[in-house]
Amino acid sequence: MRIMVWGPTRLSGQVMVSAAKNAILPILAASMLSSGTVVIKKVPAIRDVHIMMALIQQMGLEVEHAEGILTIKGTPQNILPDYDLSRQIRASFLLMGPLLARCGQAKAFLPGGCAIGTRPVDLHLKGFEALGAAIQITGGCVTATAPRLQGNYVYLDFPSVGATENIMMAAALAQGTTYIENAALEPEVVDLAAFINSMGGRVSSAGSNVIRIEGVAGLGDTAYSPIPDRIEAGTYMVAAAASGGEVIINNVIPEHLKATTAKLLESGAQVKEGPDFIKVSRGQEIKPVYIKTLPYPGFPTDMQAQFMAYLCSAGGSSIITESVFENRFMHIGQLLRMGAQITTEGRTAVIRGVPQLSGATVKATDLRAGAALLIAAITAHGQTIIEDSEHIDRGYENIVYKLNRLGANIYHI
Ligand code: EPZ
């Protein structure tokens, strides 16, 4: 798939943010914990969600999907996900916790490296072992077995989002109480806890670095609406500032965007927060900034590529350090093709601003890198073709349509 963009254009108007991909994916896995009927509302039509739905269907659950409303029921029968499906998204590893809790056993293919790093799962497995599971790894496949999980203390060496979520889901039906220490603080972790509690679970202090999960005998019905996607919102905020236009981003929780807002203000953009919307515009020159990506509430790694595309046209040199993933600079090579001036030293990139990028044929290497190229293409002079643009569709619902509505000259070709 390819996307063509003609630039430069100033974006203006309003855009509606969809529900959060990174909340829905663990929530879909957690729906397997329920013995009742689970309804999830406002589910965006994006590939990662479709793959996760196919995976839980393949586990034996009934999944109905009508106009963004998912209805899920049944009990998992199969404990090994389909290889071709599961290797397409790392989030498939989140099926392990619920399967272990419901079936006493779970299997998963070890996620190979992906475009942004090796992304091991050692912290997930450490958590399962702490809850009493026996772990076996053979032939690239990991098996966790535990007739009955026991609550325990789990210390995470790194506040991993996925490990926090996987352990929380397994602990939800364990015997006794589990404490996850040095837990991830991301809003999507808090949303997963709220979802589990809406089914009768007892998860407390999610959003702090010690999460308490009191195991219960079973979980029941729920109808749940996940939080808005803070990374989709942040992407449109940065696109608005980069284009020099004025955009209102609707359906946001401004609290979740503090780091992105702070850095946009530092760079000279205007940002006005409403109760559930944010207005972004830019009048004068883009000022260079220093950014270091960190776990929440620090500057999100998922916004790093987009912000770098914006800083390519700053009046001066910016520095970005990527401290969460060891290889999340794949977009730099593509930005250089558009005339950006960026050098890297390990996990640090120095971005020397240029007056204007110029259109080129580039390649999306991962989801957020693809979004960064869209931002660069909207600000660049001339035509840009983005190849492998299906990466972008994994996490941004109708992004070509939404940007078109904001005035971008952008088309799927
Ligand atoms: C989640 O991935 C998100 N994905 C990612 O978003 C996001 O970039 C990441 O959190 C960080 O915020 C979903 O929620 C589906 P981690 P996850 O476990 O859970 C290391 C996007 O663009 N680590 O917090 O995989 C790991 O190698 C995606 O929407 C271990 O060492 O992230 C990485 O360096 C990309 N051992 C760091 O922690 C483990 O057992 C962060 O990983 C687990 C992780």
Distinctive features:
413 residues, alpha+beta, UDP-n-acetylglucosamine1-carboxyvinyl-transferase, Chain, four-stranded mixed sheet, binds ligand EPZ
Care to give the gist of this entry?
The protein has 413 residues and is an alpha+beta fold.
Element layout with pairings:
Layout: E1 2-7, E2 12-16, H1 21-30, E3 38-40, H2 47-58, E4 62-66, E5 69-73, H3 83-86, H4 96-103, E6 105-109, H5 122-130, E7 134-138, E8 141-145, E9 153-155, H6 161-171, E10 177-181, H7 187-198, E11 202-204, E12 210-214, E13 222-224, H8 230-243, E14 246-250, H9 258-266, E15 270-273, E16 277-281, E17 290-293, H10 304-311, E18 317-322, H11 330-337, E19 341-345, E20 348-352, E21 361-363, H12 367-379, E22 382-387, H13 390-393, H14 399-405, E23 409-412
Helix pairs in contact: 1-2, 1-7, 4-6, 5-6, 6-7, 8-10, 8-12, 10-12, 11-12
Bound molecules: ligand EPZ.
Task: Characterise this structure.
The chain is an alpha+beta fold and 413 residues long. The chain has 2 domains: 2-18 and 228-412, Enolpyruvate transferase domain (UDP-n-acetylglucosamine1-carboxyvinyl-transferase, Chain, Alpha-beta prism); 21-224, UDP-n-acetylglucosamine1-carboxyvinyl-transferase, Chain, CATH 3.65.10.10. It is built from 14 helices and 23 strands. Strand 11 and strand 12 form a beta hairpin. The structure holds ligand EPZ. Ligand EPZ binds next to helix 1, helix 5, helix 6 and helix 12.
